[in-house]
Structures are given as structure tokens and as C-alpha cells.
Amino acid sequence: MVALRHTVVLAPVPRPWLADAVAVLLDLAESTRAEAGRLVLRDGRTVPDVRLAEGRHLRPGAVYESTGDGDVEAGEPVRITVGEWNRRRALRLALAVSAPDGGAAVRGTLHRPDRPRLVEIGGRARVENVWSPLSRVSGGARLRCDDWWAAADTGRSARTAPLRARAECGAARAELRVVPAPGRLDGRWDVTVTVRLRGRRLYRPVAAVALRLARSRLQRSLAGALDELAARWNTELPRLVAMGPDALREAVLTTGT
Asked: What is the superkingdom listed in this entry's lineage (predicted)?
């Protein structure tokens, strides 16, 4: 096993703002209506590139399909299925993508949407025309919101990392742990990311040697990727956080239509 670790400094996300942002998105979704499969906003505008393919709008069993915006090939739609839509309890959605060179199925749950408590994501993907042990990937992630903001704002640590993720294929497994902490006088967070890599099954001995030999290169790659992500986060996020609900709603409508 090889463990890699890197810390970045991130602009904070105030928890009340996050709750307001989620509420804006849910209010917008619930203000739409379905007409002959089209999704129509309250002001009469049509939501582009999405249609209701099956079921009743925002009810369990409803299936939505992308209609293609240049990124999705004809005949290869993205399908989103509603498992549950209850703002006091949970939102459960499943997403499926299929293409000649592979496909993916992802499920996600947001618990207590009106005051986000827990986010869970899991799924599987397949890729054609690659080495067989790498052709099937599965994984998942879990974010415990209460623990995240307690650690980020007060430094109180939980027994396990607030954000955890894993991914595995036939040859290897990766585990990720993310822990925030109060960092600077300006309120920014110090966020430490730890990645553990190991081989699986018959590939474990070979992977152990390869990972040790490549450890320095992997550490540089991780640090570079996280630093780049942090730079983008710190550029874009403050602009979003500065928006109130009305401005955020208008920005979503402008982008989406």
C-alpha cells in the first residue's frame, strides 16, 4: 500500500448559504411542469435538452432523458430516474449513461434536503477495449455534513473523515479521506486529502512494487491536480457565495435556458 497526502487552502462554504442554494435548485425544479414530455418553467420557457420520458413529474419512477445538446450522441441518452423526492426526508436519483465504448450507472442520495445532513453516491462503470482488470470500475463516496462543518469551523474532529470515497477495479483499489480544519484569519479552510492505493487479488505483489517505485511521481501528480482544483475553487466559489437566493436563481435560469 502507498499513502499520499496533500493539503490545500480553500475558500469556505458557509453552511447557511449551501442550504439556501439547495433550496433554490429544488424550488426551481418543483416550479416546472411537464407538458407532453417537455419541462416548462413558471414563466413559460422550456427547459432545453431534457424531457420526461416515463412516469409523473418528480414522482418516484419518473424517468428523464437528455435530448442531446451536442455532447450526447443521438441514441445515447442520459437517463435520470427519480427514486424518492421528499424535501424533508431524502432525494434519491439514479443516472445511467450508455455508449458503444462503455457505460456508467450512478445513484445518489441527499438526506434531509432542507438542511443537508448526508450525501451518498455510488456506482459502476465499464470501459470497452481496455485491459480486462481495468474495464470494470465501482466506487462510492459519503459526505457527512454535520461532521464536515464542525471540523471546518471549529476544528472538532470526528472519528472518521467527514468525506470518504473509494474506487476499485480488478487490479487495484483506491481510498480517499478528506478532512477540513480552520486555517487562516480570513476564514479559509485547510483541507487535507489522503489517498491510499493498493493492489487487489493476484495483482497485489506486482502493484506493491510498482506503487513504491512510482510513489514520488504519484505524489507530485496528486499535489498538482489538487492545487489546480483549489485555484479554480478559490476563483469561482467566492463569486457564487456572494450571490443571494434571488441572484443565484437568476444565474441558474440564465445558464439553463
From this structure: Bacteria
